[in-house]
């Protein structure tokens, strides 16, 4: 039985808006094992970014409504920003969605890293060698530390931010849409770097948030699929892609084009309809309105239950 | 300012959430277009700053429109005992010559509003024309217009107006407004250019171009509406700026040669020792009027910024 | 960086040319013979009229080709000859102006620098303390909406006339003669204080508001979020935000120079403070166009020089300009 890095239990995080509370994350439970690379996939607005963000820093409008998070057996006080500071960067870190603009435009990168480290009580000289080593690993010239962010390309900035975020070897790394803004070759480099970091124990476990299933298929150990603020399915990658149990997952996979396959007569099917509003979510299974397999029991919300070792689904039909 | 300016900073340096005096005050840059008129009006009605500012300005406008009708004598007529403090007969007292300060105030308000609208409007038009053209055309046209903008920007406005106004025998409110309009436009042109630059690469402009629309039509129908909130706020700032500049000119004695204005009232007051004689009713109202109007305009602008930019709305 | 300065200098030189040309052109566009117009407006003693006529003819005379007049004008300018003052005949304009400039600078420089510095500090503070924000913001807006002369009038009235704490006019006490004495210095300061305060307050309001908004903007930037996600202390975040917010404030300072000068002029008029503003008033009242023109040129040169100075400071503060990138909006 391997150790568990992250344990999320019935986590609820809502957004305050003018029109009421958006229940973005509504009772989510799962674990991430040591050394695991977990992909977190789903449509826009399904709550995956909220989940990623809430593990490190709640922004102004987010509220921790309920549930707990445990990191390496210790409670992670996500609702208390002051106490969270001790964990940030050192135990849990993030590669943000906005990596392109994540660095101070008027500071040389090296200087910014030094100031950041010093401010967190870490001596820069001690880290310099490690920093240089990692830059080389991701294919960045050490001279990049002398540059300003504006002088770097998008891909270079992404990789730089990856190096910075993982510099202190966090237990958990959250990678939020790290490939969305990149071209294909950069995507590959970044994906490979993520695996590399895990293999070299720079990072213990990683959660990769993405809407690109084909990416996580290649590097993730297991994949979680979210829908409308709740978990739909979690399974080892191969199982999820080849033998999914949740109708939503099945339709997602079915919507993916396959390399080398010609679609002469068959059409790529999307999933008709759109996700429900989370201001006032419907009772029962949230996928019900779009699900071709829906039946009466779906009026009652299905629990997220294990149907096979390491394989959990939230669907009455799957039990 | 050649192609590829640091737009973020340029925008930040010229967005009008506060006066050019504050010069830099963008809490957030150009706002994404509010979803439909209905939503804008909904927030507009509920925004306290916008409503309060509007009420004050409208109040003064009413005074300007109606006030002169309340008195049957002209502002510069000698109608009463000199140097009288406010009384029932003369609400704002009289000047050292026995002129009715209230009449002067209300007439002065009229000229203030007139200059503000004309001067600010003209500056806005020129700024938009130059900004749109430079931003849309780019290239040599852009460079040339930039040079022009920079020169007019750097030249100290009052100094030029001094020279011009000093030479004119007879000066009126309209020429004064025109001069103000001709010198106050550079910051608007800069900001409009920056935004046009960024908007022009967007898809909907490409679409319009593909469907055969000409440059002018694209600017009028696609680019400008996306900046409408910004243009409105800039217009308000220009109005305020014109009022202040006109008051300064009048105060130096280079305002309209006939009639009365708030700046001229202050000029006269200082000239005729109202300070030493303690005739506060002569110099307090005109300055207070300008401060109130311009201040309300600035507050309105802050309110407008909140209305147009959802991120700023208080929850 | 060299390109940056070359560009800036180019603009300033061009602007100077334009300003001088405008100055020379305006009288020509007015109806009538400019020489006669000027002579008739200035009620002069015969000797004055004669030397005036000579100078005027060289500059505006209709018997000479245009380009000659223009060159004569430039020639005089470069020689430091701005003509003879009508009001203070027979003193040359240059001398009159040079005696007034120190007073104006004494007001402008401290008021500008201090208000910029203090306004930025307060604005930054207001951006992070709600209670301060609620007082600074409305106060700032009122101050910046106040016409410079009106605040000057109010201060002069309240602290000069009503309470009598400060003098109402002059650069120093009329009973004193200029001397290197403590008493004279004290008198200078005493007369200087209210006009300085007036200028300072109005400008302060504008900077405070601007800085507050800029800091808020920076505190919402992506790089701030990233730093906070990595647990950076507020100290570091604020330092970065402040530094970055200063840049547009500096650009704003350059843009505001013309307004500040105008403010100084009217403030001097209110206090009869013997600087350029006072000269302007006298020139207008006495139809002394040479003096007015001289003041105009001085102001233009001063503003251009100040702009250039600010450009230099900008390069120092924004490290990106040194590597040849566009850090500012030139």
Q: How many distinct beta strands of chain B?
A: 0
Helix content of chain B: 55-70%
Distance between the termini of chain B: 39 Å
Q: Report strand % of chain B.
A: under 5%
Order of helices and strands of chain B: HHHHHHHHHHHHHH
**Oligomeric state of shown chains:** heterotrimer
Mean pLDDT of chain B: 82
Radius of gyration of chain C: 24 Å
Uncertain residue ranges of chain B: 1-34
- Residue fraction in strands of chain C: under 5%
Quickly count the domains of chain B.
1
- Radius of gyration based on Cα positions of chain B: 22 Å
Measured as a percent range, the helix fraction of chain C is: over 70%
| Most extensive protein-chain contact, per-chain counts | B-C, 69 and 82 residues
Provide the structure class of chain C: mainly alpha
CA(first)-CA(last) distance of chain C: 12 Å
Query: How many DSSP helices of chain C?
Result: 13
Number of strand segments of chain C = 0
CATH architectural type of chain B: Orthogonal Bundle
Textual characterization of the structure:
The complex is a heterotrimer of chains A (319), B (315) and C (330). Chain A has 319 residues and is of the alpha/beta class. Chain A has 9 helices and 12 strands. In chain A, the strands form 2 sheets. Chain A has an 8-stranded mixed β-sheet, with helices on both faces. In chain A, strands 2-1-4-5 form a 4-stranded antiparallel β-sheet, covered by helices on one side. In chain A, a hairpin with a 2-residue loop joins β9 and β10. Chain A is globular and about 65 Å long. Chain B has a single domain, classed as MetI-like fold. In chain B, α2 crosses α14 and α3 packs across α4. The N terminus of chain B is likely disordered. Chain C is mainly α. In chain C, α7 packs across α10 and α10 packs parallel to α11. The C terminus of chain C is likely disordered. The chains are: A alpha/beta (319), B mainly alpha (315), C mainly alpha (330). Chains in contact: A-B, A-C, B-C.
Kindly list the characteristics that best describe this protein.
heterotrimer, A: 319 residues, alpha/beta, B: mainly alpha, MetI-like fold, 14 helices, globular
Structure in a nutshell:
Chain B has 315 residues and is an all-alpha fold.
Please outline the helices and strands.
The complex is a heterotrimer of chains A (319), B (315) and C (330).
Chain A lengths: L3 E14 L2 E14 L3 E5 L6 H7 L7 E10 L2 E2 L5 H4 L7 E4 L13 H11 L4 H14 L16 H12 L6 E5 L7 H16 L5 E6 L2 H7 L2 E6 L2 E7 H6 L4 H8 L50 E4 L2 E3 L6
Parallel strand pairs in A: 3-8, 3-9, 6-7, 7-8
Antiparallel strand pairs in A: 1-2, 1-4, 4-5, 9-10, 10-12, 11-12
Chain B lengths: L6 H8 L21 H11 L1 H23 L30 H37 L1 H16 L2 H11 L5 H11 L2 H15 L2 H8 L4 H12 L1 H25 L9 H10 L2 H4 L2 H29 L7
Helix pairs in contact in B: 1-8, 2-14, 3-4, 3-14, 4-5, 4-7, 4-8, 4-11, 4-12, 4-14, 5-8, 9-10, 11-12, 11-14, 12-14
Chain C lengths: L1 H28 L4 H8 L4 H15 L5 H14 L13 H36 L1 H16 L2 H15 L19 H38 L2 H8 L4 H38 L4 H10 L3 H29 L1 H4 L8
